[in-house]
Amino acid sequence: MPTFNDSMKEYKKQLQLGVINQAYRGLMDYLLSLRNTLTLRHPKYAGSGSFYFGYMDMTYFPLFPPMLKQRNLKIAIVFLHQEFRFELWLAGTNKAVQKQTWQALRAAGWEKYQLVESLAGRDAVIEHILVDDPDFSDLDALTQRIEAGTVQIIHEIEDFLIHHA
Fold first, then answer.
1. Structural domain span for residue 9
2. Domains in the chain: how many in total?
């Protein structure tokens, strides 16, 4: 394991090459654009949640479908940097809501998208891969794929909650 100083020297070297800077800025611009697109096309999902840039581990933004918001739940669109994928997370506004939701979904027989095994150290009840190893050469197609998956999952969660919780 390199020392912090060795890591910083490598970081500086990589930044001086310019590729990481360009990629990171492009990714952040894309994610901000994705959030704007989703909230413009689905204004009922907009909310007061902030954009989390992260520590190059994850970057995400929340969506608040009204039915989920009434239950103190939210959807997070997450980009996991090391795994290099987009995920959709169903999360509670706090740990108590998250635990209650996780237990209720388990008890009601939720099977559509896998629940997290344990809530310990987790920020979500459901973590579902939307796009693995995304192709950033066609951002419109990527956005459409993320949007379609997000809307479908939100509807399925809402439908399940209407009938089971």
1. 4-164
2. 1
